[in-house]
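Here is one chain, start to finish.
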Amino acid sequence: MLALALLTLVLHGALTGLFYAFSMSVVPALNAIDPRRAEEAMRSVNRKILNPWLFLVFLGSPAAALVTGFLADAPASAWFFAAAGVSFVGSFLFTMVINVPMNNALDAGTMEWRRFAPRWAAANAARTVASAVALVLVGIGLTGL
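Its structure:
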């Protein structure tokens, strides 16, 4: 049980760090170069990021929190369920409803960088905050085990 809870913590920490890195370095760096080069670089990032390690962290975070919630006793279980919900809505749904369609539009050439970057960055900031909240909820859940 403790091992699963710690894995849940690590997964949420990795996801929070990923989104944070985009907010603090990737998007600002791309905004500092020519928009055509930024589009090209972001297309490359969007293709390369789709790998098993991303899917493990991206899908594993809410799933691990949910499973941990089912296995934990109260009151810890409530914190893990809350983390799963925040992670699912704030990370998974935001990504699938906002970021992925924008990535696809950028890839198709139907959205230019000047329109893409501010909207994508705002949605990513929301994902970062949600992931950090989920991480804290997992941490609180760990204290109740």
